[in-house]
Protein Churchill
Amino acid sequence: MCQRCVREEYPDRESLCVDQGSYMINFLKCFECGSQDLKMANRSCTEAEDEEVIHYQHICVFCEHLVAEHEHTFKVDGEFQVYEMSCLLCGSADDQRSIMPIDPRGPVM
């Protein structure tokens, strides 16, 4: 992963957990060739009994320089769906949603 290609390392994205795409606002340019174009590569999805992990790489379109590794996790924990994201480019985030029609924690403020 390359800290020289991004404005901020692992920006706090609060509850925004994405399993595809790139946070282009945080991308400066490829440190190797100066390009401002990225692509996703080597996307994989691993599923266990109660967890799904999506992993892919952000790579420069022209020179294939590795900018960042992206990981998105989804799991069910009791009455909640739990999402987590970790990526040098896209940032860090986590979110929790009730699987019940009415959230037992009450309304979200």
About this structure: The radius of gyration is 16 Å.
